[in-house]
Design a protein that fits this description.
By secondary structure, the chain is an alpha/beta fold. The protein contains five helices and six strands; from the N terminus they run βαββαβαββαα. It is globular, with a radius of gyration of 15 Å.
Length: 149
């Protein structure tokens, strides 16, 4: 099992949680972004820089993810793609996407996009906060302990 991170929009505090988890569990962690990402020295952690462009990091992750891997992303279409390949996706707010819930999340995301395109202001997610960070850390721990004791 490997952990992939859609690192362009991933909060730094989430990256720090992931760095500690990768070292603690001795799991491969790859951060993928279209800009340089700072990582701590570790045999388990690496960063991969993709070319600039729309969804290049997503395409790279989707191409390399394998069944059972975990992808950290807030991007619902990427989450849907990796779940379709037998992997899991966890967003930085602690929601785990899997075969049982991803279609519903994708449909809701598409509806919201459609409403926005008609000019309806539906707002966006609230500011990332301590409760989100804790939810992510808790969900990650449960996931890793079940799949990589």
């Amino acid at each position: 099992m490997k952990i992939w991170v859609d690192a362009d929009a991933c909060p730094n505090v989430i990256k720090e949680i992931l760095f500690r988890a990768a070292d603690r569990k001795r799991l491969g962690l790859t951060l993928v972004a279209n800009q340089s990402v700072r990582i701590p020295p570790s045999p388990y952690i690496k960063a991969f820089r993709v070319q600039a462009g729309f969804d290049e990091a997503d395409k790279h992750i989707a191409r390399l993810v394998e069944p059972g891997d975990l992808v950290i992303t807030a991007d619902i279409p990427l989450a849907a793609e990796v779940v379709e390949k037998g992997a899991y996706a966890l967003n930085p707010r602690g929601e785990l996407y899997h075969r049982d819930n991803i279609r519903e999340r994708l449909a809701m995301r598409n509806l919201m996009e459609e409403l926005r395109s008609t000019g309806i202001d539906i707002g966006g997610p609230g500011a990332f906060n301590l409760a989100d960070r804790q939810a992510f850390a808790n969900r990650l721990d449960v996931f890793l302990n079940r799949r990589h004791p």
